[in-house]
Design goal:
Blueprint lengths: L3 E6 L4 H12 L6 E7 L5 H12 L3 E5 L5 H12 L4 E4 L5 E2 L3 H12 L4 E10 L7 E3 L10 E2 L17 E4 H6 L10 H12 L3 E13 L15 H15 L4 H20 L9 H15 L13 H8 L2 H11 L15 H12 L3 E8 L8 H13 L4 E6 L12 E4 L3 H9 E6 L14 E4 L17 H7 L2 H8 L4 E4 L2 H10 L5 E4 L7 H4 L2 H11 L6 E6 L15 H8 L3 E5 L16 E3 L6 H7 L2 E4 L4 H5 L6 E4 L3 H7 L14 E2 L2 H9 L6 H14 L7 H10 L25
Parallel strand pairs: 1-2, 1-4, 2-3, 6-10, 11-12, 11-14, 12-13, 14-15, 15-16, 16-17, 18-19, 18-21, 19-20, 21-22, 22-23
Antiparallel strand pairs: 4-9, 5-10, 6-7, 6-9, 8-10
């Protein structure tokens, strides 16, 4: 029997679950089992947990449907547990180093106890802000373990379930389970308090709790706030049935109603039309369960209790309103350029949304490209009732096909369609001045799988952070997102960390990558002719990424020398990062500059092999199952300056070379396309080509534009059953 069973529910925390599990597995005290509770085998977190289970036999997977809630997930973990003591850990929290050793040492001092309370640290999601420590109320008892009657203020109802260790035999003997509904920690903590006979306290931080940027679900407005009254009643009924002594019942009663009064006073949590009903029901509970001879707390803190006892709702609301700061929120006009344009935008915002209008934008208006273009094309097919408008920068109008409507960024029409459209689709972000209207739907498609750090993860890399602008403004833009498209589970996890928000992740694949499964041999031949690739030649796409420590495009490789050394049949398709797509052509000899070509997908179709350093194009190109070579001449510098989110050198998509000579040699001797290269690519594809099966655009259009439920969408085709577009020369 292990000493500890650690139950970790994982719903909606796939991006941080690895940190939670690793914090447990890294503990110096190793006598434990780690029970990861996942929504189901196909859930994002299940893959993370399964990977840990293959590496450590102490990890156990349990499934609990998300519809049953947090309480059911914890109960499922408890049923699977076999340890002496139970611990709970949220999937985005971590155990402090040495935590289990400290708990074990304290239990040696206390002997067998029903509950061991401990401290926790509340860590803001933003790394730059200080953490705060919280924990059980102070106790004056000197003994290592004591009866709850000796410290009646230690009720547990104000503590989260993960702020204590519970003897499993005590939990099962009293048939303690987490109640259904919200505020389950209140119900659990109260029921545990009523049943416990011997408790102890450890004055040490055991859990580091992440305060989510989007806040707690319990703080959101809605009918679920009434669940708090259900939990309160459940605890008080159990306490009365167990004839809890008055000296223990009174602090339990007061602490429960401190929580109830805090919710009743918060105008944002209980819906406006339901506040009186909430207060009246709370008043009835207060009167029904108030201890005999109970005196409300003294001073100002006792006023809400007295008003609740009297049922004085109007006086309670007046007092709450008087306590609010009277700050008038000035209505700000969006900064949309000239005054006349700003006023016109404001007027359009007053008009109804056009439910059939979709606005698309790619790469800050660089043209008709990427995921937005693929979605525009698919929407024409599946949702012809929708009208699409593409946004482009001045001077980029020529990039839009003749039959596609567009609006020039900054124009009157630009602001009009942004104000009226129900759907707004972007692979970057719309201008800060764009207002997120109620009823509008913002779809973030992204434009690549992350290797480098993105979003808020860039904050600790000075060179990148200095160029990234305000992270506060970034997060305001993220708050507009309703959906965020992901092409693989790695991306889902990274987006959750880099762009924390309340959007729904869509693990549907990148629409732009559909063509890699749908294009035919004649399509490949056509693109090669358009790009000028000589027939019979091996076209090697060279696509280096942007470097934040460089001021302009530096190819990093003598391409003419590479062609000469690699073989007579090699030509290079040079595609610089899109930051450098405004320069003149760099074609010469056997070098064909395709940087300005509108479609990166066409360029990939034309290429027989890819050479890149750290560009995200490798993840897209891997869908074609063609050779990839990583030219990592400055990996250590790039990793330190830009930051990366996984070890590319440990999981490359093909051979890794460090010098021009090594690069030429791997092409000259055929190693770039050999069996070792294929094996590396297969492993890479299993991890990063999960959802790109040729049906991504259809899934997104049907889910977002047509409102179809997830279960009605085409399932992802297994990787082994996909047929990539054929290469021209292999």
């Amino acid at each position: 029997m292990p000493r500890f069973s650690i139950v970790v529910p994982s719903h909606d925390v796939a991006g941080r679950l690895s940190l939670a599990l690793d914090s447990v597995l890294a503990q110096s005290f190793g006598d434990f089992e780690l029970i990861a509770v996942c929504d189901g085998p196909a859930a994002p977190a299940a893959g993370v947990a399964a990977d840990h289970a293959t590496r450590d036999s102490r990890v156990v997977l349990v499934h609990s449907p998300p519809s049953e809630g947090l309480g059911a997930a914890r109960n499922a973990g408890v049923r699977a547990a076999s340890g002496l003591y139970l611990l709970f850990l949220d999937g985005d929290d971590v155990l402090a180093p040495g935590a289990l050793a400290a708990l074990a040492a304290r239990l040696e001092e206390t002997g067998e106890v029903d509950v061991l309370y401990f401290e926790h640290e509340r860590s803001p999601w933003w790394d730059g802000e200080p953490a705060t420590t919280a924990g059980p109320a102070p106790v004056t008892v000197r003994a290592p373990a004591f009866s709850p009657a000796e410290a009646p203020q230690l009720t547990g109802v104000a503590l989260p379930a993960w702020s204590a260790a519970y003897r499993r035999s005590f939990v099962t003997a009293h048939d303690l389970t987490f109640p259904d509904g919200h505020f389950t920690d209140v119900g659990w903590g109260g029921l545990v308090t009523v049943a416990a006979e011997r408790v102890a306290v450890l004055r040490r931080v055991v859990v580091r709790h992440l305060l989510r940027r989007q806040g707690s679900r319990l703080d959101l407005p809605g009918e679920h706030q009434f669940d708090l009254l259900d939990q309160t009643e459940r605890v008080l009924v159990r306490a009365a049935a167990g004839k809890l002594p008055t000296e223990r019942f009174t602090p339990l009663f007061e602490q429960l109603f401190d929580t109830v009064l805090a919710v009743a006073a918060d105008r944002e949590r209980v819906p406006a039309g339901r506040r009186r009903a909430f207060f009246r029901r709370a008043h009835r509970l207060y009167r029904r369960h108030r201890p005999a001879g109970h005196r409300t707390p003294r001073g100002r803190s006792g006023v809400p209790h007295r008003l609740m006892a009297a049922g004085a709702y109007t006086a309670f609301r007046v007092r709450c309103a008087a306590g609010l700061a009277a700050v008038a929120a000035a209505r700000r006009l969006p900064r949309a350029g000239r005054l006349r344009t700003r006023l016109a935008y404001r007027l359009h915002l007053r008009r109804p949304l056009d439910k059939n209008l979709v606005v698309y934008c790619a790469y800050w208006g660089r043209g008709y490209a990427c995921n937005p273009a693929a979605l525009h094309a698919k929407a024409r097919e599946l949702a012809p009732h929708l009208s699409g408008v593409f946004l482009v920068e001045p001077g980029q109008e020529h990039t839009v096909p003749e039959d596609v409507e567009y609006a020039v960024i900054g124009s009157r029409r630009y602001w009009k369609v942004l104000a009226r459209a129900k759907y707004l689709v972007n692979n970057a972000n719309f201008a800060d001045a764009v207002v997120k209207r109620p009823g509008s739907v913002h779809l973030q498609t992204q434009h690549g799988t992350p290797l480098k750090t993105m979003g808020c993860d860039q904050s600790t890399y000075p060179v990148v952070a200095a160029r990234s602008g305000s992270f506060t403004k970034l997060l305001r833009r993220v708050d507009r997102w309703d959906y965020n498209v992901s092409s693989n589970r790695h991306s889902t996890e990274m987006w959750e960390r880099a762009f924390p928000g309340s959007y729904e992740p869509l693990e549907y694949g990148y629409p732009r990558n559909d063509v890699y499964c749908t294009a035919r041999a004649e399509d490949v031949a056509r693109v090669r002719r358009e790009l000028g690739v000589p027939e019979g030649k091996t076209a090697v796409l060279y696509a280096p990424t942007h470097r934040d420590h460089h001021t302009g495009f530096e190819p990093g490789l003598d391409l003419e020398a590479f062609c000469a050394a690699a073989g007579e049949d090699v030509v290079v398709l040079l595609r610089a990062h899109y930051f450098y797509d405004r320069g003149g052509p760099r074609s010469s000899g056997r070098i064909i500059d395709v940087t300005a070509h509108r479609s990166a997908e066409d360029v990939c179709l034309a290429a027989d092999a890819l050479v890149t350093d750290y560009s995200s194009i490798m993840f897209d190109y891997a869908n074609l199952d063609r050779p990839i070579v990583v030219y990592a001449d400055d990996w250590e510098v790039y990793r330190e300056i830009r930051g990366v989110c996984f070890g590319l050198m440990d999981t490359p998509p093909g051979p890794v070379v460090r010098t021009p000579g090594e690069l030429a040699a791997v092409f000259r001797d055929g190693g770039y396309a050999g069996p070792e290269s294929a094996a590396l690519r297969a492993r890479f594809r299993r991890r990063f080509c999960q959802f790109d099966d040729g049906l991504a655009a259809e899934r997104v259009v049907r889910r977002v534009f047509l409102g179809e439920p997830p279960e009605a969408l085409p399932p992802v085709i297994p990787l082994a059953e996909r047929v990539p577009a054929p290469a021209a020369t292999h």
